[in-house]
Specification:
Oligomer: single chain
Strand order of the largest sheet: 1-2
Helix content: 40-55%
Order of helices and strands: EEHHHHEHHHHHHHEEHHEEEHHHHHH
Largest sheet: 2 strands, antiparallel
Number of strands: 8
Shape: globular
Structural class: mainly alpha
């Protein structure tokens, strides 16, 4: 059941290497010709898509660097750990003093383009497979299109316009290939490409109810509609947000918020897109490498590295009685849901509870899942869109659904401006440590004030968000060097 994402195929080829149409790399050292006859079966075709899911179990895709550029960078988290341990670059990211050579921006870029390459390999191979059940091939194409769209959404949110690599490069690589790989498209063009992929995915994917057993971990039509609504949200296409949220059907909020982040709560009724981890006490494993260990309590009585620690600002953002606070933050000296005691001598006052694994709490490979799309966010997206269109009274009940699950009363906000602020705050506490906060404060214009208010002993006056620079990540230096004559760096870097 937890082994859906384990595949014999580990497709290779990073962004600048081009990629051979003739061979796949097979873990660990063997290679086999990418002859359709060798993979011309339901299992073979499924292997290509399984390899795309597997990319999300990659260290660079989902672990240390990803936590840095989505969480530590924001007002929800500090670097944590010990002052002397920079975590390679987590200190400069926390301080907003990073530059184009900061490694975590490079690793995030590379990992997503490696994933896009896996999508392109699958989509190039499928037309050559004539022995695959037709309905399965249609669905697999939809899954590949969804995940390519998801990866491009990650890139465009972070870096702005990026190259659209929508096919495999030739071998040897041609000038047209180099142009494709090295030329930044506009943000609007990238969003249009994402939307086309998602519309294709919607046409191909089944509803969530069509899946059973291990397949319940796969993306569905609802996943594509939810991601499309989020893409609309970032472009402020408010009516499209509402329309696509309305098409996300078959999901309900779970009654117990904390249960979603435990093993027995995985892929529940609220889950729309979730990355599956399979814990292991040996290497190689099939969880996200050190996702749990890097965020676990550090120091005397601890068992982890102690990075990505909740800020006082986040802890104070929860209203009295909000059950999400205790489900999101591990406090020094507390006892966890499985009885494990957190020493009162650990290095940091707070840690990320959503990264905790009971069974693999100190192991490299964790069974902790990443929750990227949940039904609660669909409700909040619809509330935000309705409010922005002036339909505030219609927006409030969707906001209240999320609040009531958190054991809170109805929002006291009434007017459009107050409801807007209430929705933004609700997103913060509902989605904390789910890799949205930085992008949220950028898209809503809160970033400068939020970072100024991010006060800690290390930053007693908060942090300086430079308007016109920090809205976008720097493009990696390696890309800029390679792309002379094709692309320019983002402003300020």
């Amino acid at each position: 059941m937890k082994r859906l994402y384990i595949s014999m195929f580990v497709l290779s080829g990073l962004f600048f290497s081009g990629c051979s149409n003739e061979f796949l790399d097979v873990d660990p050292t063997q290679a086999l010709p990418a002859d359709p006859a060798l993979v011309n079966s339901d299992a073979g075709a499924s292997g290509f898509v399984t390899a795309i899911y597997n990319q999300f179990l990659n260290w660079d895709m989902s672990s240390f660097g990803w936590n840095a550029v989505t969480s530590i960078i924001s007002d929800d988290a500090d670097k944590g750990s010990d002052p002397s341990d920079a975590g390679t670059d987590k200190d400069v990211i926390d301080a907003l003093t990073y530059n184009a050579s900061t490694p975590s921006f490079q690793s995030t870029w590379d990992a997503n383009y490696a994933g896009i390459n896996r999508c392109n390999q699958a989509l190039a191979m499928f037309p050559r497979l004539d022995k695959v059940t037709p309905s399965l091939k249609v669905r697999l194409e939809g899954e590949a299109k969804f995940m390519r769209a998801f990866m491009y959404f990650t890139l465009v949110k972070g870096y702005g316009g990026v190259p659209i690599v929508d096919r495999l490069a030739n071998v040897p690589i041609t000038e047209e290939d180099r142009k494709m790989q090295l030329t930044r498209k506009s943000t609007a063009e990238v969003y249009a490409f994402i939307e086309q992929d998602l519309n294709d995915a919607i046409a191909n994917l089944p509803e969530k109810s069509a899946y059973s057993g291990a397949d319940r971990m796969r993306v569905s039509k609802g996943s594509a509609y939810a991601l499309l609504a989020k893409v609309n949200l970032y472009q402020k296409n408010w009516q499209k947000v509402i329309d696509n949220c309305d098409k996300v059907t078959g999901y309900v909020l779970v009654s117990d918020y904390a249960s979603m982040y435990k093993l027995d709560g995985e892929f529940g009724s609220e889950s729309i897109f979730e990355i599956n981890g399979v814990g292991s006490t040996s290497s190689p494993g099939f969880g996200i490498p050190n996702y749990t260990a890097s965020q676990a309590p550090r120091g005397a009585g601890g068992w982890g590295w102690g990075f990505n620690t909740p800020t006082e600002g986040l802890a104070n953002a929860y209203e009295p009685g909000d059950v999400r606070r205790a489900a999101t933050i591990i406090f020094r000296g507390s006892t966890l849901y499985d009885g494990r005691v957190v020493s009162d001598k650990v290095a940091n006052a707070m840690y990320n509870y959503k990264a905790y694994s009971s069974a693999f709490y100190n192991q490299e490979f964790t069974d902790t899942n990443l929750r990227y799309l949940r039904y609660a966010e669909v409700l909040l997206m619809k509330a935000e869109a309705l409010n922005e269109l002036g339909q505030t009274s219609a927006a409030i009940p969707f906001l209240n659904q999320v609040r009531k699950r958190a054991k809170l009363g109805d929002t006291p906000a009434v007017g459009q401006d107050d409801v807007r602020i209430a929705i933004w705050k609700e997103r913060r506490v509902e989605l904390a440590f789910e890799h949205d906060r930085w992008f949220d404060i950028i898209r809503t214009g809160q970033a400068e004030a939020a970072m100024k208010a991010d006060v800690s002993p290390a930053f007693p006056n908060g942090k300086t968000f430079i308007v016109g620079r920090h809205e976008l990540f720097p493009l990696p230096t390696t890309f800029i060097r390679e792309s002379v004559g094709y692309s320019d760096q983002n402003p300020g870097y």
